[in-house]
Amino acid sequence: MSDALRSDRLSSNGFHSESFKLDPLSERWIDLRLVSASRLLLAGAGLVVTFVGTDAGPTYIPLITTLAVYTLYSAVVLLLSIRRSHVVPVRYMHWADMIWFLILVGFNDGSNSIFFGYFFFAILVASFGWGYLSGLRITLVSTFLFSAVALLTAPNLDRIELNRLLLRPIELLILGYLISRWGGFKVNLRNRLQLLKDVTVLSNTRFGIDRTITSFLETLRSFFDADACLLLMRAHEKTEAKHQIYRVRRGAASGRSAPVEVGEDAAQMFLHPSPNYAVIHRKQRSGGTEFVNVNTRDLSPADSTVCDRIATALDATNYLSTPVYTRTQSMGRLYVIGSPQPFDNSIVDFVLQLMDHVTPLIENIRLVDSLASYAADEERRRIARDIHDSVIQPYVGLQLGIAALAQKLQSGNHEVLDNVQELLDLTSQELLELRRYVWGLRAGEERRDVLLPAIERFAARFSSVTGIAVDVNAHGTIEINDRLAAELFQMVTEGLSNVRRHALCNDAQIDLSCTNSQFVLQIKNPRPPVTAFEAEDGHDQQKLFTPRSISERAALLGGKTVVSVDKKNYTVVSVTIPL
Hints:
By secondary structure, this protein is α+β, with helices and mostly antiparallel strands. It has helices at 25-53, 61-82, 93-106, 119-130, 132-152, 162-202, 208-224, 264-268, 305-314, 345-410, 417-444, 451-466, 482-503, 532-537, 548-556, and strands at 228-234, 243-249, 260-262, 277-281, 289-293, 299-301, 319-326, 329-337, 469-475, 507-514, 518-526, 560-565, 570-578. The strands form 2 sheets. Strands 3-2-1-8-7-4-5-6 form an 8-stranded antiparallel beta sheet, with helices on both faces. The chain has a 5-stranded mixed beta sheet with strand order 9-10-11-13-12. A hairpin with a 7-residue loop joins strand 4 (277-281) and strand 5. 31% of the residues are buried.
């Protein structure tokens, strides 16, 4: 049932979140097996109770047959879920259950049926798996069809128990609505927790502040299924512009370009109103504009003149605007633009809490960038000192030596050969030191072509030491910054170490490919042959496992690690890093 969380389309407050998806793979099959086992227990219990508690007359044959088939169906679904088969139509299982229950009610006294309570099972699965809207739909359809089946299957309309016929649909409607609300709230809460987790993963200082903010806005836009997200922030002190605008739009490629810088006058309209208020703006016919006090969360109507101009500038029919704080100071505003469902006070509260979580991460990245800039300044000063000590001072000594030679020659002393030789030796030695220093500077520069040569050198040393031949293949131009290259190099060394310790093979392969959007690293090695013991035991090969160190490094870079077996029976550890 957790698989339903991946496609939740409506939360408990009616908010649409189509594009933001969870993928709790382990919990997915656990919950699906739990639902399948519960279904089998309900079907089996109904079959036993019906068979034992009634006379096996002709009138009960259709009911018992239906229960037997439903029990068999439930057992097959449970078996498929245990084997993690994707044949199970998880999205529509609760609708299939509802149809089964209608058939059981039709064969078992209609409104007096003992299987009336089974409808709540389908409502629970729909609500806690797919959210509020799915639960409400199946509640309404179940109520209507149950009433219709109860009337159609009544043996005599004069003998209908009116109290049951009226009360049971009412129970189904009211209790189903409550279950749908609570189930949708649970799904929405899980989505929000996942959003907080994803925001934390996105805050990687290696990617820089611009990419981090853009990735956060894209994640937020996807969560709300909005047309766009915009963040107006006070610019860094060193820039001439007063504010910077970051924006992502639906359907646009994830950009890594610098934000748009605007002056104070251009930013003032988007900073409306004061930092003490959030804004919910809708079309006038659907509710107008409301201000939300960020301290008390009180709603109050407001003049929409400025907000209408903002909506026109943003080309939005509705938007949510919240202030963004760093510590106690205002640093800008966040806009969520063009959501298919209206915003409310609870959404404002969640976005404010989310920004309280995000702004310290942004400040930390800014701090790291400042420290890096300070370190660069210090490095430039160190280089200046080194040039003074290793270049200028030796030339001063050379100048003094030449002056001494000139004085000797002027005084008529022509025995200067030894002095000239000393100067030549000094010049050669200092020239050698100068070359070493220049090469040291070149090695310290940030280069974008260091990864492939480093891997090739390491692979050659690894092959000579271990006897395992390593083939390095690069597809396209491999150009990444040296900080990311250092992480990928560590993954390669860890992967080859695993090959040496576990694979028991004589060769390995490293494939590198780089595009504008992602970098792919693949480490391949032949799988070990099947031993006689494994063949007798029914195991074809050793089990695949995901290297923990490599997967953790990839996750910190926003990537993922997948282990598979290719057509050549090679184990492939594939690491994908977004760029």
